[in-house]
């Protein structure tokens, strides 16, 4: 699928997931409704509301793009969350630190074949990692297998 370059070298990308457009629209729906209301107010009452509509349109577009530009990258040893439109931020999680996961699908998500996965970890900076609004897939099985491989490779054994 490709390579991801981190500070230690290149890592083979096994999966790359993005939130779906439907999920992104669901995240900006309140702003879209405010935009429609501000345009209606400007048209019927006060033209000054067009300024508000313009600002809301820019804000809504920015929010939409900020969701679309999230990228979840899965390698053999890491899950990397890449965010940002102009400036980028990366958050990586070692797979052997994943303890459990939860798949969430609301009625809306089931209707459009979308899922969100929450990973519970022992990482100091990221105790939970949310993979939100991605297409329904077998990514959890892939993550589970890679977690087991990473634990064996790093000699990590769970004691209850």
TrEMBL record:
InterPro entries membership: YdbS-like_PH (IPR005182)
Keywords, comma-separated and alphabetical: Membrane, Transmembrane, Transmembrane helix
UniProt xrefs under Pfam families: bPH_2
TM regions (residue ranges): 28-46, 52-74
Domain of life: Bacteria
Chain ranges of the YdbS-like PH domain: 70-138
Name used for this protein in its record: PH (Pleckstrin Homology) domain-containing protein
Organism of derivation: Sunxiuqinia elliptica
């Amino acid at each position: 699928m490709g390579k991801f370059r981190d500070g230690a070298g290149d890592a083979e990308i096994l999966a790359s997931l993005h939130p779906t457009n439907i999920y992104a629209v669901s995240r900006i729906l309140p702003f879209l409704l405010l935009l429609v209301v501000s345009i209606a107010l400007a048209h019927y009452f006060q033209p000054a509301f067009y300024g508000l509509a313009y600002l809301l349109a820019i804000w809504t577009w920015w929010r939409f793009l900020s969701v679309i530009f999230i990228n979840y990258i899965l390698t053999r040893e890491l899950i990397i969350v890449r965010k940002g439109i102009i400036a980028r931020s990366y958050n990586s999680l070692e797979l052997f630190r994943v303890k459990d996961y939860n798949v969430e699908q609301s009625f809306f998500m089931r209707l459009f074949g979308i899922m969100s996965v929450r990973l519970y970890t022992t990482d100091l900076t990221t105790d939970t990692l949310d993979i939100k609004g991605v297409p329904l897939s077998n990514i959890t099985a892939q993550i589970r297998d890679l977690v087991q491989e990473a634990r064996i490779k790093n000699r990590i054994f769970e004691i209850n």
